[in-house]
Amino acid sequence: METHSDVTFFRQRLFPGFDGKMCKVQPSIATDGNVVLMTWQNLLLTGSDVFYGELMARSTNNAVSFAPGVDQEMMKSTWNGKTRTAYYGCVFYSAKMKRWFGLGAGQCYVDDKKPILVSSEENPSTFPVVYDVDHERGVFVSKRKFSVPFKYSRTLPFGQILECDNGDMLVPFYVIPPNEKRSKSYSIIARCRFEGDEFKVLSAGSPIIDNKYPRGIGEPSLAKLGNKFFVTLRTDVQGLWASSDDGMNFTKPQPWRWDDGSLLENYNTQQHWIRFKEALYLAYTRKGAGNDHVFRHRAPIFM
Questions:
Q1: CA–CA gap between residue 216 and residue 235 (Å, rounded)
Q2: Fewer CB within 10 Å: N-end or C-end of the chain?
Q3: pLDDT grade, residue 228 (50/70/90)?
Q4: Alpha-carbon distance 210 to 214, whole Å?
């Protein structure tokens, strides 16, 4: 346990166990004030972004403890000839609609372990998926693709979303256009809404793009403080941020820096937001912390 000012941090090791073949990645967590649901994926260590299945765990004591993780039937891979489709989803709760749901994607692989990186709009290799969630059992109960108003060969809803006063949601995506490699990726914010059981993408903002980065801009997360919206973004070279007045159209992305102008030294890694007591914090990783032995300096996490 650590205490800083009026914030207390507790470290807790959840779901231990390592078989040397798979690791646990992409955790997501959500609560309705009574139930907390947490999900994570299994990643094959000998491949590159090779995922198998997903688990969900449930807590009723404000995440002090969790029931054992449950393998999700909805996330089991499907096959079409030699092509395997793996599924993942982050869990969310809409306070306005009082609705649990999940957002994620299906990712296609050739011969089980080789991700398909270049594909067409007609045959995308990664496509967006919405899930229904039974929070009483802690399971995804159904999944379905949904349409977006931009062309892609690969796209997925990603990171932290924002709920508007009318129940609409601002959802970050990152996108690879048809027939392009990931060097052309960009990020975009879409306004989405549930109409009955249908998840609709109503509109999309301006692409957040800068082709000077080797693989483009991806993995956006969205936050709001006061009347201003902020997005944090991943590139191979450094973490970026941009701001917006409407949550859809953002300024040119800039590198994260310290007050003295020096770079934060985050690179090739996600960053996320923590909103606490009318302040906004960045959760991130970086070089320069005695962590050169850690892959891509992905530990420790700073705030």
A1: 6
A2: N
A3: very high
A4: 10
